[in-house]
Specification:
There is one protein chain. The chain is of the alpha/beta class. Helices cover 32% and strands 28% of the residues. The chain has two domains: 97 residues, 2-Layer Sandwich (Alpha-Beta Plaits); 111 residues, Pectate Lyase C-like, CATH 2.160.20.70.
Length: 263
């Protein structure tokens, strides 16, 4: 089958596309929607689009495929990494979430070993001294080419009031502060950190531009989905002791750290 729903290793559902034929995709989605239990599951849980086999080198096509799926009534949390860094970066710059699946410790260690071997082969370590000498000889100190606006922490966008189910709020190039409750089915996202002073029952996506230093803070933490820089988990992945509490969330390796906060 050219199109299929698959379980992701992040406890989400992946829509795997082996074709870019819009009519074929729409026919598959219509057939899936005929089954009430499948349609309910997909429309209320994270759906991630995997178009790496047909659009790895074409961000325009990937974006078009995403629109085809979302216009059909399916909620997409983001696009799975395509394997092409330039395509992923182009999509990220357009405001799309690029999802990095969780990996096992063995996979992480294997990648670290591969990177170390590649660094050794390319001679990066031996070229460090030459690079430093060229920088010193240029006459420009570190960061001198950047303005204050480029080096300062992004400003915060503030929303006062409740965000109801189905609503979407996105703070582009900013962090986001919400003073109010976020309802089930609402999407709250920002290119930097997110701070919720109220009950959080919807979906949270911080660091949409790939900023892994972004954090999430909620005074009443009950989210459907949490995402930072494309790494995400659902409520089922969150230790029960943090639900309904005041919590700070950070990226920790390939997963998350949850820290209860005292107010």
């Amino acid at each position: 089958m050219a199109i299929a729903f698959k379980n992701g290793n992040f406890k989400g559902t992946v829509l795997n596309l082996d074709t870019a034929d819009t009519e074929e995709i729409l026919a598959f989605l219509r057939d899936s929607a005929k089954y009430e239990n499948i349609a309910l599951w997909i429309k209320t849980n994270p759906l991630v689009l995997d178009c790496s086999k047909v659009a790895a080198s074409d961000p325009d096509l990937a974006e078009s495929l995403l629109k085809t799926v979302t216009d059909s009534g399916f909620r997409c949390a983001g696009i799975l990494e395509t394997g092409n860094k330039s395509t992923d970066e182009a999509l990220r710059n357009r405001g799309h979430v690029i999802v990095t699946p969780f990996r096992t410790q063995a996979e992480i260690l294997a990648e670290s070993r591969r990177n170390a071997e590649e660094d050794k082969e390319s001679g990066k370590n031996t070229n460090t001294k030459n690079t430093e000498e060229k920088t010193a000889g240029s006459g420009a100190g570190p960061e001198t080419g950047k303005t204050d606006a480029e080096t300062n922490t992004p400003r915060s966008c503030t929303v006062t009031g409740n965000i109801r189910s189905g609503k979407q709020v996105y703070a582009r190039n900013n962090s986001l502060t919400v003073i109010g409750n976020v309802g089930y089915g609402a999407d709250v996202s920002a290119d930097s950190s997110i701070f919720i002073f109220g009950a959080m029952r919807g979906r949270l996506m911080a660091g949409r531009n790939g900023d892994k230093t972004s954090v999430i803070f909620c005074t009443n933490f009950q989210p459907q989905l949490v995402s930072i820089a494309g790494v995400f988990c659902t409520m089922d992945d969150i230790p029960e002791k943090y639900l309904g509490r005041s919590v700070l969330v950070r990226l920790h390796g390939e997963g998350f750290s949850f820290e209860e906060q005292s107010l």
